[in-house]
Amino acid sequence: MTETTHTLVIGAGQAGVATSTHLQKQGVPHIVLERDRIAERWRSERWDSLVANGPAWHDRFPDAEFTELDPDAFAPKESVADYFQRFAGDRSLPIRTGVAVTKLERQGDGFRATTAGGVIEAKNVVVATGPFQKPVIPTVVTDPGIVQMHSNAYRNPEALPAGAVLVVGAGSSGAQIAEELVRAGRKVYLSLGPHDRPPRRYRGQDFVWWLGKLGKWDMKAPAPGTEHITIAVSGAYGGATMDFRRLAGLGVTLLGRAGDYRDGVLRFANDLRTNIENGDRNYLSVLDEADAYVKAEGLDLPEEPEARNLLPLPDCVTNPALELDLKKEGIGTIIWATGFKLDFGWIDIDLFEGDGRPRHKEGVSVIPGLYFVGLPWLSCRGSSFIWGAWKDSERLAGLIAARG
Ligand SMILES: Cc1cc2nc3c(=O)[nH]c(=O)nc-3n(C[C@H](O)[C@H](O)[C@H](O)COP(=O)(O)OP(=O)(O)OC[C@H]3O[C@@H](n4cnc5c(N)ncnc54)[C@H](O)[C@@H]3O)c2cc1C
To answer: Do 151 and 30 lie in a common domain?
Structure first.
């Protein structure tokens, strides 16, 4: 069966839902295909206790509030998924669930998408299949006695086998998982690399408010070759600054960046103190920028000098372990919170860089009529986040409508 539409949107996470909303507003006929359920990744690729990183007043689309939540609360992941599902239902967006696109190719001036149920031909295609598609595990640990999983497969402490847990990676996922595990009474090791760790709140305002005021959400992509630094932030337990000294105080043993593995021993770079101190510098620089903003704008926000008091460096940082004998330390599980890569293997069109990224400018690909939305740094830092996908898709829907 072959069907024709003006614009095909692939994926119905937040980016696909936002795109469909804006296409509808522009009167552009379209179909959205989603292989699972709306916002599936929020349901089945996140751990049970995850809450949004930003408060409910911020982590949402401008057109609808989280009616069941206090605006300052952090939405549990199921509420986030329900929110997008409800949002799509209320607007009768033309989303078909359970339909995977297995191949996308060019056909004349347009495109041809293959699904199990048939073919869809479209003049335009918006790919909204997510910023975090395929788990990355950087090191091979060959020990059949140790359960290994990526952070997208972690659910809760009870689901892990007995024993100590090594969490590798200290962005938002790794830091939050390590804290949950140590609070559940597990012995936890946390390997951390370079990271930013902004204050959760400062002078009475949440950090997402500060990011907006300081123009950081709208920041353009770092220059090519500039390392993207992971950001450790958390809305868990009501929201607190991610402070690795505090985690050490709870019992987490901090380690440097994980390196190679041989004969049961995993090695770590001697960079732990540098990573912690650079993280502190990032934290303090946000306070400095916020103070300068308050002064420049003449705002009446309460001063908070105590935010600059850092706990002493814990022993595991001043005398870092550079290797772990996994068996000796009783490690039963390794959780790799080491990020994701893109996977566009199903797109049979010549537009990808060697690292798998599509060639595009702010979501407009080098192929006329083909667009991407929701990718990290698509147009700015906010692009892979809820409201960023909203803004990018609004702009792209305008371009599609103008194309006719
Ligand atoms: C642990 C974690 C916590 C996060 N927390 C926040 C947060 O608090 N706030 C925030 O703003 N952002 C957060 N993010 C970032 C981002 O908001 C999420 O990753 C979000 O899921 C991205 O939405 P998306 O629509 O771009 O992609 P996805 O949610 O990944 O949606 C893509 C959809 O496309 C579908 N799909 C894929 N391939 C195909 C295909 N071939 N055919 C049909 N359908 C397909 C998938 O099933 C999926 O439903 C978080 C990310 C992670 C990993």
So the answer is: no
- 43 has pLDDT over 60: yes
Amino acid at 201: R
Nearest CA to ligand 1 atom 41: 101
Structural domain for 94, as ranges:
2-133+342-403
189-216 pLDDT, tens per residue? 999 999 999 999 999 999 999 999 999 8
Q: Measure CA 392 to chain center.
A: 17
Residues with CB under 6 A from ligand 1: 10-16, 33-36, 40-42, 46, 50, 52-54, 59, 100-101, 128-132, 173, 346, 374, 384-386, 389
Pairing of strands 340-341, 134-135: antiparallel
User: Is residue 284 within 8 Å of residue 308, measured between CB atoms?
Assistant: yes
What is the average pLDDT across 26-40? 98
Neighbouring C-beta atoms of residue 35, cutoff 10 Å: 17
Query: Ligand 1 centroid to 1 CA: how many Å?
Result: 29
Burial of 2 (0-12, 13-18, 19+ CB in 10 A): exposed
Q: What SS3 state is found at 103?
A: strand
Same domain, 217 and 328: yes
Q: Which two tokens stand for residue 247?
A: 């985690």
Q: Which residues pair with 253 in a beta bridge?
A: 189
- Do 97 and 38 form a contact (C-beta atoms < 8 A)? yes
Q: Are 108 and 355 in contact (CB under 8 A)?
A: no
Residues 6+ apart with CB under 8 A from 294: 203, 301
Closest approach atom of ligand 1 to CA 235: 8
Residues 356, 14, 111, CA angle at the centre, nearest 5°?
55
Cβ pair 94, 20 in contact under 8 A: yes
Whether 281 and 395 map to the same domain: the answer is: no
Asked if 191 and 331 touch (Cβ cutoff 8 Å), the reply is: no
Q: Which tokens belong to 254? A: 């901090």
Instruction: Tell me the best of 20, 21, 32, 41 to mutate to test the pocket of ligand 1, counting ligand atoms within 8 Å of each CB and taking the most.
Output: 41
pLDDT at residue 155 in the model: 98
**3-state SS assignment for residue 144:** coil
pLDDT at 161 over 60: yes
177 and 240 housed in the same domain? yes
As for how many domains the chain has, the answer is 2
